[in-house]
From TrEMBL:
The lineage of its organism: Archaea, Methanobacteriati, Methanobacteriota, Stenosarchaea group, Halobacteria. InterPro entries: Bact_solute-bd_prot1 (IPR050490), SBP (IPR006059). This is ABC transporter substrate-binding protein. Pfam families: SBP_bac_1. Residues 1-29 are annotated as: Disordered. Residues 7-24 have a biased composition (Gly residues). Gene3D superfamilies: Periplasmic binding protein-like II.
């Protein structure tokens, strides 16, 4: 993420505010006013949902303050790490959750009724559960019971955008595998004037790491084994890096080592690039004919499967999670539970879709599948979405991993050199935090 360094130094191996629960300032009352710090963009849609539905539904006044991404992390870290009560509900990007999960209460005890888990997509429940189901154990979560400690409010997962006009020109079907992406991309580069078959977001650090992660999982398998040993230094992981830095680079424009998300959007929108991973926020821009020359040709499909190696489909998960601050009094926690339960109700989520929100309930998708052209791809993607490594240290080693990927893209490291250096670097950070004891 943009503030990976901040997250790493802000909380080290994560705060453990205990197992949550009552603060001792118990009350049978429900507070009538709450404060939430949320992120600009996704948080603005949530604020509209609160203003247009939740406030009336609950009778609670909810003050939603919006902050840029990095500022929100700083605010959240400052409040929770000092056991403060300035904000009642924490709005957390999912890579932050391992750092802050010990500072938010198990959520069910404060809800007026049960979570609608039969309608919540499983991956969005797992990512807000701590310790995370299926993830390796970490020292700071030792002894904690596995409980749902948050609730997803934005169902983001990475999609794959491709230019169907170019695909039609070269006689290719929508890509199912990364091999399909490369094969079609080669033909497009050769046969379509002015078009590159692919475009890589290769900027050093987090941008290239975020761009590569789904492909790494698709071919290389999960980044870590059950003991936090780095998996991608093996044959499959090294092949994923080779495919990315050699094959996909060969059909991308020159200069990809400096490309960030704006270059990807511009390339897809102008038709100078045929395909790339894209988040839902980018989808809306790419389909806007006033912003995108290729709006009529851009289509969305789930992130492709690996064509070799692990052969997985593993779209990168990017959810925003709400959690109830453990350090506020019980009347505020009860109010926070009412607000969260209202915001994720079927009625609220239908309203959320009308406002342009990204849902996470089965029934919301099923009843609103035509609301956005990319909803079918998003719904399918959410079923197999892959969370980033569930450790507070991801922000520390993720950016370094991205620096090594950038060096491999530039030709300064071979794929095997890159993955071996990554293994040494990542496992060194984890060893210093006692992950192997």
């Amino acid at each position: 993420m943009a503030l990976s360094g901040l997250a790493g130094c802000g909380g080290g191996d994560g705060g453990s505010g205990g197992d949550g629960g009552s603060t001792g300032s118990g009350s049978n009352q429900t507070a009538q006013e709450l404060s939430i710090a949320a992120v600009e963009g996704s948080g603005r849609l949530f604020k509209r949902l609160v203003d247009e539905y939740v406030a009336e539904d609950t009778g609670i006044t909810v003050n939603v303050e919006l902050f840029p991404y990095a500022n929100l992390f700083e605010k959240t870290n400052s409040v929770l790490s000092t056991q403060g009560d300035a904000y009642d509900i924490a709005f957390m990007d999912d890579p932050w959750f391992p750092q802050f999960a010990g500072h938010v209460d198990p959520i069910q005890q404060w809800l007026p009724e049960d979570l609608p888990t039969d309608q919540l997509i499983d991956t969005t429940v797992d990512i807000a559960t701590w310790p995370t189901p299926g993830a390796p154990n970490i020292p700071s979560a030792e002894g904690m019971d596995q409980q749902i400690r948050g609730q997803v409010i934005v169902g983001n997962t990475q999609l794959f955008a491709y230019n169907s006009g170019f695909y039609d020109q070269v006689g290719a079907d929508a890509p199912e595998t990364w091999g399909d992406v490369y094969d079609a991309g080669q033909k497009i580069s050769q046969q379509v004037d002015g078009a590159n078959g692919y475009i890589i977001r290769g900027k050093r650090g987090n941008p290239v790491m975020a761009n590569f992660f789904a492909l790494g999982n698709a071919i290389g398998g999960t980044m870590f084994d059950d003991d936090w040993r780095y998996n991608w230094a093996g044959e499959n992981g090294t092949e994923a890096v080779r495919f990315y830095t050699e094959d996909l680079k060969s059909i991308s424009p020159d200069g990809v080592t400096s490309f960030d998300s704006d270059a990807i959007l511009n390339g897809l929108a102008s038709g100078s690039a045929a395909q790339a991973p894209a988040w839902p926020s980018a989808a809306s821009l790419l389909l806007d004919s006033e912003e995108s020359d290729e709006a009529d040709n851009i289509k969305f499909t789930p992130i492709p499967k690996g064509h070799k190696g692990a052969k997985r489909r593993a779209p990168t998960q990017g959810n925003w999670i709400m959690g109830i601050n453990s350090y506020i009094d019980d009347s505020k926690k009860k109010a926070a539970g009412e607000v969260i339960r209202s915001a994720i109700s079927k009625e609220a989520q239908n309203k959320y879709v009308e406002l342009g929100g990204v849902p996470f309930r089965h029934d919301t998708f099923e009843e609103n599948m035509d609301a956005q052209p990319w909803f079918p791809a998003l719904y399918e993607s959410l079923q197999t979405a892959q969370y980033r490594p569930r450790t507070p240290l991801y922000s520390e080693f993720g950016i370094g991993h991205g620096e090594l990927l950038n060096a491999a893209l530039a030709g300064d490291l071979s794929p095997s050199e890159m993955t071996q250096k990554a293994k040494e670097q990542v496992e060194g950070i984890l060893a210093n935090a006692n992950y192997y004891e």
